[in-house]
Every structure is written in C-alpha cells, then in structure tokens.
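Per-record layout

source: Faecalitalea cylindroides
name: MobA-like NTP transferase domain-containing protein
length: 183
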Amino acid sequence: MKIDLCVLAAGNARRFCGNKLLCEFKGKPLIRHLLDKIDPTLFSHVYVVTQYDQIADIAREYGFAIIMNDAPDLGIGYSIKLASMQCQSDAIMFVVSDQPFLKEDTIKKMVELANHEDIIALEYDHIFYNPMIFPTKYLDDLKHLQNHRGAKQLIKGKSIVSVPCDALEIVDIDTREDLNTLM
C-alpha cells in the first residue's frame, strides 16, 4: 500500500511566543527530533507543510518536499487541506512536528497496519492522538478542512485501528514551560 506522509509544521506557536520548532531541545532543533525518525522508504512521498523558510531548508536537507502554507492563521485544517491536495497514494499520514518522543517503531507499526478502509490512529488511555493515517476515501473530507481542530474531527463514527503507545509519545510541546520541563 502506498502512503504519503505529511509533517505539519506551519503553526504560529502563539503560546510558545516564537518558532518552537527551531528551539534547541536535547541538543538539536525540536523539528529534527521528528524528522530524524522518518524512514522515507516507508512512504511514497514525504511532505513538510510550513510557513517558515528555515523549516523548509531543514526539511530539504532530508530530501523531503515542501508545501508552503501562506495562510497559517487558517489553522491546522488548512495545512491538512494543502497536503491532501498533493496526495498521490492510497493513504496519507499526518504527524505533528512537536512530538519529540514519538518512536520510529510506532510510525512503522502504523504504516504496517494501513489499509484501504480504516483510519489508523495512535491511542493512549482510550483516546486517539496524532499521528493518524487516512485512506484516500477520506480525501474529500480532508480537503475541506480549514479550521484549528485538525483531522481528528473526522474520526467520530469511523472505523479506527488503534496503535497503543506510552504516555511520553503523545506529549507535544506547546509552551516554553513544556520545553523546559521536558529537558
């Protein structure tokens, strides 16, 4: 099964008060913690959606395609829409760029479970989290997102295959306090 991967890295990080993805975290910029875990051989295409030239430059170092989001104020839904419009595969996986503890094995396990019918989602304590994989039958719905709630709003009532994870994998960094606490 062919899967495209979309790294969502276009947010304004208002609660962080700056570009958190470029902040040093455990010896390297936060964005690199995720990008280092992506095995491009698992995916047909890897896209990084961003508004930042510096993030685009880093993503290019990994050989990933860039989708520039010129309207980040429209929310994560708009970034998802932009990536969905590029999807050329059987499914698309969305991963947020501020989950530094997401494991490479978890990503691989999700890809292995991907199919043409089910949404694949990370699960902790009976709650679904990013990353998520959507078969192309959901592309029209994904292309119409334009808000701050993301693709999670589409999963209610759908068939979902969950991939259990530990509590640390779902941790994302939203504030400078988060960053300092996790150091």
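summary: Residues 104-113 form the longest helix (10 residues). The chain has one domain: 3-182.
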